[in-house]
């Protein structure tokens, strides 16, 4: 019609018509629309999703809030971000958009994963903590527990081992059981990782979208018997509609020992040798000044060796992750591959991890959705490892090599207690572990089939995991095993989970209800086979031909665990003010006897959104959120292994009539068909708050839990034919407080400073052991005391010569000599014995805290995190073991000793008699640590586009930078295993890490 108009009334109609069509054409063409998205304070928002309405074009903002998208004038941009109200913008002729998002009401509309679904934060009645996004995305860590450490109140993460590939341990609100594993239950994308023999190291941190921690009885009740120690829910990233997005995240850096416990110098060691010889009335080798032959030769030739330096090296770590995501409205995908390579600070400690993940979501029809969450990961810990404990014990005059260039077996020969710490590096053991997890879901929306059923959904979750482990090792002539010893260990675990989940959501005016029903089954099959060969003709084939060994031995074992669960949860909310949650779960497990396989665990919780009351309307600028919560519930714990309630027989080989036969004998552990679940009932109350236009926010929770019917071994009279039996007895109590406080200290156009403080205090005590009022001295279980305590003598000083001469020790410690420990005679009975021991402290911290400060200036962000652990007491093996073996090893330079001249009242003498009562030298293990510092720079969008990418961030980060502590040792947190104990060959120091990294998106 317009064309006809121009043709009739304009002589130049043809020309104008062409120009008009060109204008219309250009109006419909896509243009590059740029912009920045900010919050109400003017700060750019990272991760905002911008989508062209009716199209597939989707992008996200960088860390400064910048974005660039192809959109034609007149089209609509839909802008969404968690915690903010959705906004729609019509594209005009403007070149750059400056968009401000308004927070969702108190950021309470965001969905939070709570187990078998999600809820609006405003509707949550339990204690659910979310790990800050910055800890997940901006801290280069090898596993997610390192990011959680110190960032969530009352979640204690301990890095007892810095060995590459070792995962930290965690506790939520203390220990709720004496025998049971105290680790929280970990669920990834709805499928349990715990109790499958999988590790948190199996989950690549780059793949994680969010982490929630369920802590109180109501929040964990939905997991029943699995939730007694808290639950950690991990949600991995998934695809979003739009063009494919490629992201690369990588970092590389170096590691060194955070603190070296320096050994004594050669000169000082000679003084200690001389004092040891004097006080023990022994002679030195060949007249001195050293004790052993090899030491004498090196001393005479002026040769010394720094043994710690010999086993240490500069560690190197690198991580590379590539992900691809995208899709349409009906099919979305997220695929990632990750490679981690870590060379440890001790020779031979190497770790490689290869992982691949694929998450998919398909909308097959309008009523049926399907998806997968599957991954495969391979761990490689191959290599012979240097022994740090042996290295720390070596005299600087010890001999490293023989004349033929081979390593000596005993560097301090004729001393044969300590062997060469480098000998294990000549071996080449294989340590391999895999995890293949295939998980999927199917969800049926009944409301799309029949409108009256709107809100009703059924979801099938299914997961299968296969975890094989292979360890191959061979010892031969290189470690002075001239006969040869080979061993192959194969273990595997196969687990499956099937969950049927029915949900229903409905709103009736101001009323809202949602119901979740569950029927689930789990199975775990485990088996192990060990083949050993001894006495080989040579070392050529190693473990490759155990059949060549003269002596061969094969053993195997297997077990099967099964469980069935039913659960129902009802949430009710009225006018977003009053909320109620009722949950009951019934679990049955094969580990219990035939009479008590099932247990029911109910809970109830209520919450009140006070800020939504009419009397709070005029305080919105002061109090934007104020919610009170209370919950009470019961959870369970298995606390025993498989087949522990059954009457079983052991098989043993024996000779009879000149033939080898197999004999059966009854197991010393008696079965118990009536054994019940260990139970924990808990009460939690808390307040969530946001004040002063969200400048201050946080939560505080106070809780108390009681565990009863604990599963403990009870000794039996010998006439029964058994030694012990598992019985329900004993009680335990936990009380504590959680505090999280977030503050926006400075909010300016170009500079911002925010802080997060978390504080946790937990008091654990045993209220009953065996039901007869008696305590268990052997296990250190005392009524009124925590589970882990230091029970020992009280040290009051060192016996001096004048005290011994005057007889001051008589009627106190009659056998004491000058230089011996002086211990308190607490019961005043004139002797030092077990009656003088008392509880000196607890091995777990009394309180912990973490402080994170984040500073941002233009494109730069500085994140500083400090955590502290206070009130922990540990026996110090460096003080105890080193002095007890003084005459046979080197010792730390910080370790002093008594002599008649210095008359120390702190350090005992070097005599073997100086600690005849076995005092453990408990020491304060409290510390404050500068845990990590990260400085990042995000390139402005204008510069990024010039190099053809969507976003670019570079950063430098340091971890474990400095520790303030009075602990004498390698580190107050790291384990320190003494000689002769299990795993004494894998002592490993705490490490300090420096990395440079880059995050790049296309």
From TrEMBL:
Q: Does the keyword Membrane apply?
A: yes
Query: Main location per UniProt?
Result: membrane
Gene Ontology BP annotations:
siderophore transmembrane transport
Q: Where is the signal peptide?
A: 1-30
Which GO cellular component term is one of those annotated?
Answer: cell outer membrane
InterPro entries recorded for this chain? Beta-barrel_TonB_sf, CarboxyPept-like_regulatory, Plug_dom, Plug_dom_sf, TonB-dep_OMP_SusC/RagA, TonB-dep_OMP_SusC/RagA_CS, TonB-dep_rcpt-like
Q: What is the topology of this protein in the membrane according to its UniProt annotation? A: Multi-pass membrane protein
Q: Name one GO molecular function term.
A: siderophore uptake transmembrane transporter activity
In what residue span(s) does the TonB-dependent receptor plug domain sit? Answer: 121-231
Query: Which keywords describe this protein according to UniProt?
Result: Cell outer membrane, Membrane, Signal, Transmembrane, Transmembrane beta strand, Transport
Compartment(s) of residence: Cell outer membrane
The UniProt entry, under PANTHER family, shows: HEMOGLOBIN AND HEMOGLOBIN-HAPTOGLOBIN-BINDING PROTEIN 1-RELATED, TONB-DEPENDENT OUTER MEMBRANE RECEPTOR
Family, per the entry? Belongs to the TonB-dependent receptor family.
The protein's name in its UniProt record: SusC/RagA family TonB-linked outer membrane protein
